[in-house]
Amino acid sequence: MLMSRFEMWLGWGEDLTFFYNDAYIPTLGSKHPTALGQPMSQVWKEVFEDVEDRIVSVMRDGVATWDEQLLLFLERNGYPEETYHTFSYSPLVGGDGTVEGLMCVVREETDRVISERRIKKLNDLAAALLKAQSRSDVGEVVRAYFGSDSRDFPFADLILFDLPDSPHPASGDATRWPVAAVEQGEKQTVIALDGFGRNLPAGPWQIPPRDALIVAVEQPGEARAIGALILGLNPYRLLDEATRDFASLIAVQIAGALATIDAVSAQRRDRDRLWSLSQDLMLVCDFDGVIRSVNPTATRLLGWQEDEMVGQVLADFVHPDDLRSTAKEVAKLAKGVTTLLFENRYRCRDGSYRLLDWNAVPDAGRIHAVARDITQERLLARDRERIWAISPVVKVVATTQGVINAVNPSWTKVLGWIEADTVGRNILEFVAEEQDAARKRLAKLSQPDATVIESQSVFRAQDGSHHRFAWTTVPEGGLLYLFGRDITAETEAAEALAATEDALRQSQKMEAVGQLTGGIAHDFNNLLAGILGNLELLELRISQGRLEAISRYIETAQGAAKRAAALTQRLLAFSRRQTLDPTPVNVNRLVSGLEDLLRRTVGPSVEIEVVGSGGLWTTLVDRYQLENALLNLCINARDAMPDGGRLTIETANKWLDDRMARERELPQGQYVSLCVSDTGTGMTPDVIARAFDPFFTTKPLGEGTGLGLSMIYGFARQSGGQVRIYSEVGVGTTICLYLPRHTGAVAETEEEGESICLDLGGHGETVLVIDDEASVRSLIVDVLTDGGYHVIEAADGPSGLKVLQSDLRIDLLITDVGLPGGMNGRQVADAGRVHRPQLKILFITGYAENAVVGNGLLGQDMHVITKPFGIEAIASKVREMIDEADKSRREGET
Prior knowledge:
There is one protein chain. By secondary structure, the chain is α+β, with helices and mostly antiparallel strands. It folds into seven domains: 7-108, Beta-Lactamase (2-Layer Sandwich), CATH 3.30.450; 113-269, 2-Layer Sandwich (Beta-Lactamase); 279-378, 2-Layer Sandwich (Beta-Lactamase), CATH 3.30.450; 391-486, Beta-Lactamase, CATH 3.30.450.20; 493-569, no CATH class; 578-750, 2-Layer Sandwich (Heat Shock Protein 90), CATH 3.30.565; 757-893, 3-Layer(aba) Sandwich (Rossmann fold), CATH 3.40.50.2300. It contains 25 helices and 31 strands. Strands 20, 21, 22, 23, 24, 25 and 26 form a seven-stranded mixed β-sheet that branches. Strands 2-1-5-4-3 form a five-stranded antiparallel β-sheet, sandwiched between helices. A hairpin with a 4-residue loop joins strand 10 (281-286) and strand 11 (291-294). The longest helix has 57 residues, at 488-544. The chain is elongated. The N and C termini lie far apart (123 Å). Residues 165-174, 748-759 and 848-852 have low confidence and may be disordered.
């Protein structure tokens, strides 16, 4: 016995002297070790009467006993305690066969019994809470459930903080439970029940609870407890953690029940709200068609009050023509078939009818139906069909791949194709021109992010004629909706008008050209008269031997020739065919070098102010054309200020962003601006619009050709820049040139700001001269020969090319641009560079095609000099280019 792990004790002798093993010690509690050797009636005197009959049976009759989970109130810790034991009493027989004592084998099952009891309690409580329909019902269930045979908690009460709490159900007074601690965040708190009267429920026990446990009832997401659960504590059990956990589980169950009720209540409220607020008509009727309820929309929609419809049959409200179909639908519902999208007409109180679209389901012997008023929708649909049918706009519905699903009658009216010959075909089959562009638009419209596209295309009619349409294509819902307007007549009229306007402009231009030609002929006749007259006088004076005054005739003839040269340059600039010789230019230095000339030109009544930007960028332009443009702008400004005024020349660096560049019709980037402003009369908007037109002038007859601004515009555009006018009548005008920034270095002559005096003498270098004009070619040959150069002549392109393809040394090629023989000067130069890549080339020209010199710009190691030119100019240019060639050759050798 002593070594056994089972709880055992034995009683020996008449007093049942008490002996026990170590396994039994926990059951004894504080009675150990004094219980050892004591009579059993003294050890367990509190329960001796409960087991005495079993002891008598063993000791007197020798019959063993068995008890399972017997409730015994042991006082092993100084107070009566609810315990449960499974045990047997067996007789101990002495040597003479008589019963001398008894053996007890016992197992305490208090924890198991209480745990099983609590699990059952939780399950039963959950089942009971399912019957609760409201929050107040939950409180009633809790009170009733714990008020009957509850050993753990002899009574319970539930207080919800959003409902008025009630007096304790058994106390009979209005004392309230002290739940403030729980309201303030405590999870559990214990209170003594001394002040709550002596009538508190005791449950199955003989004495009522002495204490109560108040537990917070909480729901997830709530900041504070929603209620308090009051539980009377078992007077025969201490409040341990297991009991606290059990109480918390009860609170959780109650919270869950409350949450379910709240959710059901919310659903019920939503359902009621839906019934009341729905814009659709809702109706419940029997299978025999008797209306049981309708929602408020019935009154709004039909005009009938609820009591005027409830109790009536459906047939009383249905249009006579719809009675048979409605009766069939009700019969199907009675057989359990759901109704979807059934339409009929219902009579309104004012006698009109509304078209309703019904969905209905049968349930529990009734029909629950919802109707949508489609009266207006059907009217709109008929209107859409009417618009589709009579609209003059061609309408097409197609897939995103272009397959036609539908066309309106206007398609047939305009193109002749009937719907049967159109539907199912791809719309591209009808496109007569620009099919690639139409195919690209169709591919773009098939993208998920496609937007509305405006376009024009030509369609082929059935009779073979072509019609131009202005289309608006709208992608929507996986389809394309095309709206087309036949603009064939408009297009033809616009083309005819454009042709007429073009002819008018050409006529006006030819008239202006005629006027210009007459003026130029007059100017040239005057200049030629001056040249020829002075040459004749020169010849006469030489023959007479009178040489003292001949220099005057020579200077006069030269002046006339130079004025003629300037006139031809202005004509070339106007025609946009001048050949540019761009070099890196610092515009500040250019303006500074011209300042004295400009002041003399505008006269003393005009004050000139120069505002040069610090750190001004370099630009790549023809220096002399820019000087000419600036001079022209200053003269125009002077003429706009007949009474004098202020003329401002301003330079600046400009960074044009995308918006500013678009406004000036330029690529985005960096530019140098040169602006000339005056305080003159200003220009009206219509004058600004025509200011760059050739021959347009506001000056009196004979004072202007209308070529100045046109020449400046042509120069700016050829240089990759732009010119803009800003003007206000009575305030003044500003004209700005925008020239692209150049990142290279400024030429040495530009940096020094003055011309370099070149050595005009040659050193035997070989120059090939090609020019079909014998007098010009002879002049160049004589100048170069006298200057010490070896010169080879050619009268046309093929002859010159033969020389270039020979082994002769050629240091420089001088060629006219326009040559006979099938090759122009540029072609000869390009062919020559195939054999001589480093060949220096000087073009001479009086009229040069842009294509010959690469859109008006020269290539590397190419220069140009325009006719007429002076002897010093040609000799200086030749010496400069040959010196550059020698320098490059020396650098290459090192």
